[in-house]
Amino acid sequence: MCNIEKFPIWRVTREGKRHTDDLVTRELPLTIILNNRELVSLLCSPTEQKYLAVGFLSSEGIVKDKDDINSITVDNQRGVVRVEVKEDKKSANELISKHFITSGCGRGTSFYNVVNVQGQTKVESQTVMSALEILSLVKEFQQYSQIYRATGGVHSAALCNTKRILAFTEDIGRHNAIDKIFGRCLLEGMPTEDHIIITSGRITSEILLKVFRRNIPIIVSKSAPTDMGIRLASDLGITLVGFVRGKRMNVYTNDWRIVSDGE
Amino acid sequence: MCNIEKFPIWRVTREGKRHTDDLVTRELPLTIILNNRELVSLLCSPTEQKYLAVGFLSSEGIVKDKDDINSITVDNQRGVVRVEVKEDKKSANELISKHFITSGCGRGTSFYNVVNVQGQTKVESQTVMSALEILSLVKEFQQYSQIYRATGGVHSAALCNTKRILAFTEDIGRHNAIDKIFGRCLLEGMPTEDHIIITSGRITSEILLKVFRRNIPIIVSKSAPTDMGIRLASDLGITLVGFVRGKRMNVYTNDWRIVSDGE
Q1: Is residue B27 within 8 angstroms of chain A, CB to CB?
Q2: B119 at A interface, C-beta within 8 A
């Protein structure tokens, strides 16, 4: 895997040092050039760069549909993705220059605006699923997480229906992983509404808003949410499931979508 | 603690649902206004906002010494820190407009430039420490991590000498936590050279560069590094210790600073 590299290290204990090797995940800059203007450089895992670029632009509100994009050119060697979008799309300058730096992955997003831009107030999906289905998806998710298991250095994200994982990816950034999923959905025409997102990372406000933007009714994580993540999920009609560990989970908001298996 | 809030949740297993409470960490925006110009908004834990603002400006190269700062005004209510710096300091615009978005916490930093700006090529400190000292510091670090233990939703960072923790903080962002430590060091005149940084987070390139900027010889984490973190640590003369777990650790670079206890 081009995402992993072997490094010589010292394994040290109180008793002594010994030479061994360790598998380490790779990190590379990716520069997105939008209509011939350098927009941003992301530090990321060097895979699925096209999906990352498109997912980023979509999360930032710069593109909404595949039709907004005239062309995409990926230069893997130089870590550059050039995207040409229709000129009437919202000015990248205006959107990105807000410099809203987030806790977890530094995406320039001003969430109150995102909610307004959306022109929509709630996720209305009637999707429900059982605790067993969530536990089963999370187990599958962990089996997919090969780079994490080898290196401990990445986050994972997946798009699922209630039965199985439809798209999976890993990246050193939890935001990048989610953007890669949504970039793929946009380019390949995979629907997101009525679907489920699983993330290995904590659920902060900006993660919640990325999910809202795609009309996703259920977000699942093995990690913790923040208070702002919970408040937004509650307001926006999203079911937030955290701390999926062992055979249990915490349902923070809109619990009606999660039924216990006896129901 | 103002950093924690109790939320009603459903604890769900295959057998059923029951109501309980969960402690959740808080997340709030902090806006930094530099010389009357809105510079950036960070999503962070609402504590030590003065340290975070100054640490951020210092990590971005906008301030270097306490003397660069004319005044700091914190408005906790509105989540705003106003900083007045001497006008001859590098233009914030120029530095921040690079839009270098990182994997882990979204700080606009262009590392190759950071290294150049520094005018220094290596950390020369002769500090050494034993495996036992590292294990002991990490144990103390974990005892300090109260918000993490209560909520699972934050990162921690600490400045130490080889014997004990001198400054400790927690934040929803791993970058924020480190910036809070360095902001405090700058404002309170705490030296960083010859000292050790412990972080709960992964060691990516931009974390490494923050540490280099403060001439820190040893960085310790219970998590993984990336390849770029390792390469920079190697080049810049920093000892990178990762995966401190149980009674062992991985030393990735400049291992001469870590002696086993028999030596």
Answers
A1: yes
A2: no
Q: Is residue A173 in a domain?
A: yes
Domain-ending residue, one of B91, B118, B145 = B118
Give me the domain span that covers residue A65. 28-112
In a domain, residue B35? The reply is: yes
- Give a yes or no: residue B15 inside a domain: no
Surface-to-core class of residue A74, CB atoms within 10 Å of its CB (0-12 exposed, 13-18 middle, 19+ buried): middle
- Model confidence pLDDT, tens digit, residues A74-85: 998 899 999 999
Residue that the structure tokens 């798209």 belong to: A167
Helix (H) or strand (E) holding A219: strand A218-221
CB within 8 Å: A227 and B99: no
List pLDDT tens digits, range A50-99.
999 999 999 988 899 999 999 999 998 899 999 999 876 555 555 554 44
pLDDT tens sequence across B149-184:
999 999 999 999 999 999 999 999 999 999 999 999
Integer-rounded Cα radius of gyration of chain B: 19
Same domain, A61 and A145: no
Task: Say how far residue A137 (Cα) sits from the centre of its chain.
Answer: 17
Total structural domains within chain A:
2
The answer to whether A204 contacts B22, with C-beta atoms less than 8 Å apart, is no
Output the pTM of the full model: 0.90
Question: Contact B250/A21 with Cβ under 8 angstroms?
Answer: no
Is the Cβ–Cβ distance between A57 and A6 less than 8 Å?
no
- Looking at the fold, whether B107 and B138 belong to one and the same domain comes out as no
Residues B88 and B198 reside in one and the same domain: no
> Catalytic: B160?
no
Mutate to test the interface with B, among A103, A228, A251 (most CBs of B within 10 A): A103
Structure tokens at B215: 């001439």
Q: Are A224 and A161 within one domain? A: yes
Query: Is residue A6 in a domain?
Result: no
B131 close to B137: Cβ distance less than 8 angstroms: no
